[in-house]
Structure formats: structure tokens, C-alpha cells
Amino acid sequence: MHTLLKINTAGQVVTIGPVLDEDGVPHVTDDLVYGNFLIGKLGTWGPMSNCTIAHVTGDLQGNFTIAVVQADLSSYGSFCIALNVDGLAAPILRTSVVDVETYNALIANAAGGVDGLALSGASKKVAATVDIGI
Questions:
Q1: Which is deepest, 20, 23, 42, 92, by most CB within 10 Å?
Q2: Nearest residue to 15 via CA among 70, 67, 57
Q3: What whole-number distance in Å separates Cα of residue 35 and Cα of residue 46?
Q4: How would you classify the pairing of strands 93-98 and 44-47?
Q5: In which band, very low, low, confident or very high, does the pLDDT at 121 lie, cut at 50, 70 and 90?
């Protein structure tokens, strides 16, 4: 799954998981910290900024939330978050940082809200003009 986040906006939460141990058993203890995750931008991997990591309450599948800090959202483009702990594995989370207007049009207001894009079942129509240079 690919997640969209707003540029320079702290407190956005993403979910990563399931986190599994070497035997394929979900890791459900709340012991992971930001130092256990790497962030990859433009092909360069490094430690995440000081963000909050928490096991999803009541989850038995090993899913964790990450409250991404503004320092990790300061530039446009794609980045990945990966778990870096011996004995544990999780899928890499792929995300893109977009401007607030794009995020609002695609996510926040998408279900027929003001200035949002119409989704299936919405009454709003989208018209497009294409210049093919003839």
C-alpha cells in the first residue's frame, strides 16, 4: 500500500506491519522505538527523526503506528520506512509527500467534498481538456 502525507505537517500517523518474528509469529509487544526504523529518501537510508511508535491497541497481527515528525516531511517526493531489528521483519512502507492542496483534493475531500475529486457513487463530475497539438 502506498500512503500520501502532507508536506511540513507534523502528527500524521502511518501504520506499518505486520511485524513478525523469525517463526512468523506477530510481534505484539509495545517495545519498538524510532531507532528501530530507517527512512529512505532518494536512495539514501538513515535513521528516522524522534517520532512516536506504538503497537496498535487490541491488534493481534503485529501492526504498529508511527506518528511521523515534521523533519521527515520537509521535502516532496517518495520515501520508505523500514524496520531494522534483528529477528523481526515487516513490509516496507512506501509513502509520498505531497502539498496540502493535493492531499486535500485526493484524500480529505475526495468523497464529494468541497474541491475534492469525485469517487464512485459521488455526484460530482470531472471534466478535462487535452491539447494534442494539432
A1: 20
A2: 67
A3: 10
A4: unpaired
A5: very low
